[in-house]
Write a structure and sequence with these properties.
The chain is an alpha+beta fold. Among the domains are: about 40 residues, no CATH class; about 120 residues, D-Maltodextrin-Binding Protein, domain 2, CATH 3.40.190; about 55 residues; about 140 residues, GAF domain (Beta-Lactamase), CATH 3.30.450; about 160 residues, 2-Layer Sandwich (Heat Shock Protein 90), CATH 3.30.565. It has 26 helices and 27 strands. Strands 2-1-3-14-4-15 form a 6-stranded mixed β-sheet, with helices on both faces. A hairpin with a 2-residue loop joins strand 19 and strand 20. The longest helix is centred in the middle third of the chain and has 54 residues. The radius of gyration is 43 Å and the shape is flat.
């Protein structure tokens, strides 16, 4: 303050010596100097003020808490000199810690939290918040429990058993705990008797709407929230039924619960008494029309109320500091010694695992012993057989003959399989996926295995591409049948892996055991010299030995044919991408023809924008500008600029490289869009545009840009054809849409030109065929590709008198 006085005296002397008056034109400079010096003094003074922290329960977020209560802190700072109050938004856990550690001086929280802090840390209330409803001030509030009025099954609180219930949160005093007490008094425990309790959080409006939309059976919110939604016409009170209705003279709302005091402003036990008294006086002096009260949406503060009803509620619910009553229950004991219970459980599990390991080891030892005994028996049997074979050469010859017969049968089986593979790869009626499916099925039948899988390899990720066989034996996750076997196939390009007994080959792999597979056969499929796929077979039975070398060659041939089929599909997809790029180039050519139309379409809105903007600038230079006219002019300028931006955006979407994104298309709207793009060309050629668009035309599914491209090609070709007709009166272009009984929609474009040349209607859609000397012959060819890609039909014909008709039909979207 001394610094401010010195500065004011200095300024007064300067003004006196300079003989300047307030009316002097230089007085404004001195006034600015005074303001700057006072501001510096304020900053200096505030730097030495003592900071007082108010912990506010941020039940709707930190930003909302600061927005609501920061003006209140500024108000207290102006009322109490030497102190600077600040707001600290805290959640329930943080406000407990702050009260315990004494890092705040005051707190503003809900009644339930205050009662808990009072019992634990000795805080004390100095004021209670007041709210206003109409002309009535309220210091208490309650909650409502609501259900839909047409829900005949819920008439009272007891009917809520086994129902779905929604509230704010378990710790919300007005958003749940008030209703919790009423439910307990009526014999209902929300956490035992309800089918489900859903805590939706803030805002509470969505809880009321959840009941209205029948998402839950009942819910609870603060009574004023329900009333305010009705006042704003967000809901109709007649659509709801208030359960356990109660009326109190001190509340204008219908309630389902008792009334409880509003939020208290409390002081911590270590806060100086003199400071607490000054704060209480400042709060009581706050007028309800003060900006701080308006920002906080309150009607001021009153003397602290009796919060014993809140204490009774917490004791009834056994929450807060009364939660210690649960500590002697079985659940509390479990929670307290949960670590010991977990340790004991882990010990039991380890003992069981050890016992299982010992049991499995013994089982394996018994199996090994049995295998060894069987090998000894087989060796003894082999020795006996050798002795017998020496004596029974004739029997050996017969057996050899039988082996040759089996070999011949295997060769015949291979020949049949090869012929089947040739038929599959050359069948024109089969698509790519069907060929792969048939190849897998043929291989599975040939090798007499239960499951076949063709899995693609993409980087480090593998996924199943095609499968055949018993679906129950397929792996539950994407990828090959066995990761270890697939790794072998990748490392040994083109070499089969034949495992007759999986248990012997994959002793440490559990996937095969879980699926029930006992034999395996696989090979890598090479594309461009690299393993891109794995072809695998698995069977539920073990085999005595590996398959023959001829069988392995059959497997290699099958892998090569699958690779050829995949390469053909990749070439087809590459061709499709090339056609898409070619279509985009065609659109770029089309947009060049629409340059004049673009200039005309953009010139009008941009010229209007410039004119309106210049008018607004002239009006702003006037002494008393008409703000209404300026606002209206700027609005028109924005509309013009927006129109120009929409035109540019639509043209950009038309010419950019599309990814064939399909969506629901209104064919009538696509026709209008195309006509808009070339409107200037239509006017320049004096073409009369006639629309016959069927109302309520069904939607089709396709790429909007591609469909518009076909329409534009039809219209531009027709305009060029009519340009050769000298009689301008006959320049008429008809655009017609209609639906048919075959679940299709049709576009028809009819011009009044010379029509198509004779015997050339069949060639009009061929690539590089054109009836114009300067034509490239790609527009209608691309149009045919687009329509056929959309499963449609495109046609062209000459009319009897004059002109030509171009049309296409597309299937409508099938609804489920």
């Amino acid at each position: 303050m001394h610094l401010v006085s010195n500065r004011l005296g200095l300024i007064a002397n300067i003004m006196k010596n300079s003989r300047l008056s307030i009316k002097s034109p230089y007085s404004f400079s001195f006034i600015a100097l005074i303001s700057a010096l006072l501001y510096c003094d304020t900053v200096f003074s505030s730097s030495v003020d003592e900071t007082i922290r108010i912990g506010v329960l941020a039940h709707r977020g930190n930003a909302e808490a600061k927005r609501r209560w920061l003006p209140m802190a500024n108000y207290l700072s102006t009322q109490l000199k030497g102190y600077r109050f600040e707001i600290q938004p805290l959640d329930l856990q943080a406000i407990q810690i702050a009260a315990q550690q004494g890092t705040i001086d005051f707190t503003l929280t809900n009644p339930g939290n205050y009662t808990d802090l009072e019992a634990r840390y000795g805080i004390s209330r100095i004021a209670t918040l007041q709210t206003r409803e109409g002309s009535q001030k309220r210091v208490r509030y309650g909650a409502v429990i609501i259900t839909r009025s047409d829900n005949k099954n819920i008439q009272k609180l007891e009917d809520l058993k086994d129902k779905r219930f929604m509230a704010v949160s378990k710790d919300a005093f007005g958003g749940f705990q008030m209703a919790w007490r009423e439910l307990l008094d009526h014999g209902i425990d929300p956490f035992d008797d309800f089918h489900e309790v859903i805590f939706a959080g803030f805002p509470q409006d969505k809880i009321v709407l959840a009941v209205q939309n029948n998402l839950v059976d009942a819910a609870t919110v603060r009574a004023e929230t329900f009333a305010h939604m009705a006042q704003l016409n967000l809901i109709k009170p007649s659509d709801f039924r208030v359960l356990n209705p109660q009326l109190f003279a001190s509340s204008p709302f219908q309630l389902s619960t008792r009334l409880y005091p509003e939020w208290p402003f409390a002081t911590l036990k270590d806060t100086p008494l003199e400071l607490a008294t000054q704060v209480a006086q400042a709060l009581f002096s706050l007028q309800e029309n003060h900006s701080a009260a308006i920002a906080a949406n309150i009607a001021g503060w009153t003397v602290p109320l009796d919060y014993s009803p809140v204490t009774e509620l917490m004791q009834r619910l056994q929450i807060g500091h009364f939660a210690v009553q649960h500590e002697t229950s079985l659940l509390a004991i479990v929670k307290r010694y949960i670590h010991w219970f977990i340790a004991a459980g882990i010990a039991v599990i380890l003992l069981l695992a050890l016992n299982g390991y010992i049991t499995r080891t013994n089982h394996r030892l018994r199996e090994t012993d049995a295998i060894l005994r069987e090998e000894i028996r087989q060796r003894e049997a082999s020795q006996n057989d050798l002795a017998r074979y020496r004596d029974t050469l004739e029997e050996q010859v017969l057996e050899r003959t039988q082996d040759l017969r089996i070999t011949n049968q295997a060769l015949e089986k291979s020949r049949v399989a090869l012929r089947k593979l040739v038929e599959i790869t050359s069948a024109p009626e089969l698509n790519h996926q069907q060929r792969l499916q048939e190849l897998l099925e043929t291989g599975r039948n040939y090798f007499e295995l239960d499951v076949a899988v063709l899995a693609s390899i993409e980087g480090d990720q593998q996924k199943i591409n095609t499968t055949s066989g018993n679906a129950n034996l397929l792996p539950k996750t994407y990828g090959p049948i066995n990761q270890r076997c697939a790794s072998y196939l990748i490392d040994h390009s083109g070499e089969p892996l034949d495992v007759p007994d999986v248990a012997k080959y994959l002793t440490d792999d559990s996937v095969c055991n879980q699926q029930g597979w006992h034999s395996y056969l696989g090979i890598g499929v090479l594309l461009e010299g690299k393993i891109n796929y794995t072809l695998e077979f698995a069977g539920t039975q073990t085999r005595k030995q590996q398959l023959s070398q001829w069988d392995h060659e059959i497997l290699k041939v099958m892998a090569q044919w699958i690779a050829d089929e995949l390469e053909r599909q990749m070439a087809y997809e590459s061709q499709r991408r090339h056609e898409t790029e070619f279509a985009r180039v065609s659109r770029m050519s089309t947009i060049g023809e629409m340059a004049a139309s673009l200039a005309h379409e953009l010139n009008q809105p941009l010229t209007g924008t410039i004119n309106y903007s210049n008018s607004c600038l002239r009006m702003l230079k006037e002494e008393t500008p008409d703000t209404d006219k300026i606002s209206q002019g700027l609005k028109h300028a924005v509309e013009g600029a927006t129109m120009a931006a929409d035109i540019i955006r639509h043209i950009r979407h038309f010419v950019q490289k599309d990814e064939a994104l399909y969506s629901q298309i209104d064919l009538n709207q696509a026709v209008k869009n195309a006509a808009t793009l070339i409107s200037h060309e239509i006017q320049r050629q004096h073409v009369i545009l006639v629309f016959e668009l069927q109302h309520g035309l069904p939607l089709i599914e396709g790429n909007l840009i591609q469909i518009e491209q076909v329409i534009l090609n039809f219209m531009l070709n027709s305009i060029e054809a009519m340009d050769r007709v000298k009689d301008i009166k006959h320049h008429q272009l008809l655009l017609k849409t209609q639906s048919s009984k075959q679940d299709t929609v049709k576009l028809i474009v009819i011009d009044s030109g010379h029509g198509l040349p004779e015997n050339q209607s069949a060639k009009i859609f061929d690539t590089f065929f054109s009836t114009k000397a300067e034509g490239m012959g790609i527009g209608l060819s691309i149009s045919r590709s687009i329509i056929e890609a959309h499963q449609g039909i495109i046609q062209a014909r000459s009319l009897e008198k004059s002109g030509a008709e171009f049309s296409f039909e597309l299937p409508i979207t099938k609804t489920a």
